[in-house]
Amino acid sequence: MRRRVSAVIRFARQTGQLVALAWQAQPACFSGVLVLNVTQGLVPVATAWVTKLLFDLLAQALQGNTPSNVVATVLPLLAAQALLAALSSTMTHGSTFLTAELSRRVTLQAQLAVYRQVNRFVGLRYFEDPRFYDRMQLATQGAMMGPEQTVHIFSNVLQSTVTLSGFLVVLLAFSPLLAALYAGAAAVRLVVELKLGRYRLLLAEENSPQERQASYYGSILSGLPFVKELRLFGLADYFLARFRRGYQAIHRAQRRQQARELRWESGLGLLSSLVASAAFVVVVLQAFAGRISLGDVTLYTSAVGSVQGGLTGLVFAIASLNESLLFFRRFTDLAALPEPMPVASPGRPIGRLTTGIKLRNVSFRYSEEHPWVLRHVNLTIPANRCTALVGSNGAGKTTLVKLLTRLYDPTEGHILWDGTDLRDFSPAALRARLGAVFQDFAQYGLTARENIGVGDVRRLADRDRVQQAAKSAGIHEALAALPQGYETLLSR
Ligand SMILES: Nc1ncnc2c1ncn2[C@@H]1O[C@H](COP(=O)(O)OP(=O)(O)O)[C@@H](O)[C@H]1O
Ligand SMILES: [Mg+2]
C-alpha cells in the first residue's frame, strides 16, 4: 500500500516537473494550450445540453404544444449549436498548433538538459561503465520522444478531465448508482493499465543492453572501419546471424508483452461494453416509464457514451503519461549522479608552468576490478623542456597523460604543478593550460579552420591565430591549397 502511495506521489511530482518544464519553455504557449483545452473540454457538454433543449422543444411540438414564436425560441438554440461546432473546430486547429509549438520547445529544452548533464562530468570514469552508458542512452532516447508525448498526453488528459467532469455531474444527477458503476469500471481499468505500463517499461529496460548489442552488430555490418575485414575474413554471415538472433530475442520478449496486453485489454473491453449496455437499458426504461423527457434521453445517452469513451481515454492517457514521464526518472537518475572526482571550486589560480610537474608516488588503476597500471611512480617533468616518455605497448603512457589532464585522478599519490596538487585547480583552468592530441583523436566534420580552432574555441574565429598555429605545425601550405582554403569542409 505504501509503495502504491509513493508511486502516486512520484507520478504527481513528475507531472509537476513536466508542467514546470512546459511553463518555463514558453509561458504564453503553455497558457494558450491550457485555456484552449479546458474550453474544448466543455464544448461536448454544452453541445449535449443545447441538443437536449432542442429535443424537449421538439417533443412538446409533437404533442401539439408548439411555442407561439417558433423562430424566436428555436433560432437561438440552432445558432448556439452552429457556434459551438465552429468554435470547436477552430479551437482544435489552434490547439494542435500551440501543442506542437510547445512540444518543440519542451523537447529542445529536455535534450539540452540531457546533453548538459552528460557533459557536466569532468572525469571520464562513468563513460566506461556499460550501466551508465545504458542509462545515458535511455535518457537521450527519452529526451527525443518523452517530452513531446508527455505534452500531447497531458493536454488530452486535461481536456478529457473537463469533459468527463461535466458529464459526470449530469450522470450523477440522473443516477448516482450508474455514476459509481462507471467510476468502479474505470478504476479497474486504471490499475490494469498502470500494471501493463510497468511491464512495458521493464521490458524496455531489459531489452536496452540487447538492443545496444544488436545495433552494434548492425553498425559493424554497415560501418566503414569494418568493410575490409568483413570481406577478407568472410565475416558478414557471422554478424548477420548475431544481428538476427539479437533481434529475435528482443521480439520474443515484445511478443510476450503484447500477448499479455491482448488478454487484459479484451477482458476490459468486455467489461466496459457490459457497463455501457446496462446504462443504456436504465435510461431507456426510465424514459418509457415517463420519468424523463426526450431531451433527457439524448442528454443521458450522450453522457453515457462520453463518460464511457472519456474514462477509457483518460485511463489510457494516464497510463501512457506515467510511461512517458519515466523519461524524467531516467533524467533525474542522470542528474543525481555525483561528479566522479572532486572538483575544486573556485580553485587555486594557475599560472604558466615555471619549475615543472612532479609525480609523487603515483599509483593508478581504472577501477578496483582492474589491475594496477601505474605503481609508485616518481617522476619530474621539467618546465620549458621537451620530454619524451618511452615504453612498450600498454605500459601506461596514455594513462599518465590522462592523469596529467585530470580525466582521471591518481588512485594513490599526488601530481604537483609547480608544487600545487592538480586537484586544487579547477579542471577547466588546468585544461586551459594544456593541449593534448591522443592517439584516438577526434576529427570533426567542420572546416579546416574550425578543426584547428576547436583547440582553443574562444579564438575559433581568429583567422590569424589559426594560421599561425597551422604554420607552426607545418600544415599551412597544404590547407591553403585546399579548394576553399581554410574554409574547406573536412568531411569524407
Ligand atoms: N579505460 C580503461 N579501462 C581499463 N583498463 C585500461 C583502460 N585504458 C587502458 N587500460 C589498460 O591500462 C594499461 C595501460 O594502457 P595505456 O596507458 O593505454 O598504455 P600505453 O599508452 O603505454 O600503450 C593497459 O593494460 C590497458 O589495457
Ligand atoms: Mg598509448
Walk me through the structure.
There is one protein chain. With 492 residues, the protein is mainly alpha-helical. The protein has 3 domains: 2-336, ABC transporter transmembrane region fold, CATH 1.20.1560; 356-432, Rossmann fold; 448-487, no CATH class. The protein is built from 13 helices and 4 strands. The protein has helices spanning 2-25, 27-62, 70-120, 130-174, 176-222, 227-232, 236-288, 294-336, 397-404, 427-432, 448-453, 463-472, 476-480; strands spanning 356-364, 374-382, 412-417, 420-421. The chain has a 4-stranded antiparallel β-sheet, with helices on one face. A hairpin with a 2-residue loop joins β3 and β4 (420-421). α1 crosses α2 (27-62), α1 crosses α8 and α2 (27-62) packs antiparallel against α3 (70-120). 23% of the residues are buried. The structure holds adenosine-5'-diphosphate (ADP) and magnesium ion (MG).
CATH architecture of the largest domain: Up-down Bundle
* CATH homologous superfamily classification of the largest domain: ABC transporter type 1, transmembrane domain
Beta-strand residue percentage: 5-15%
Helical/strand content category: mainly alpha
Gyration radius over CA: 33 Å
Alpha-carbon distance between the two ends:
59 Å
Main sheet properties: 4 strands, antiparallel
Give a list of the ligands.
adenosine-5'-diphosphate, magnesium ion
How helical, in percent, are the residues? 55-70%
Arrangement of strands in the largest sheet: 2-1-3-4
* Average pLDDT metric: 88
**Regions with pLDDT < 50 over 5+ consecutive residues?**
none
Count of extended strands = 4
Query: How would you spell out the order of helices and strands?
Result: HHHHHHHHEEHEEHHHH
In total, how many domains does the architecture comprise? 3
Overall geometry: elongated
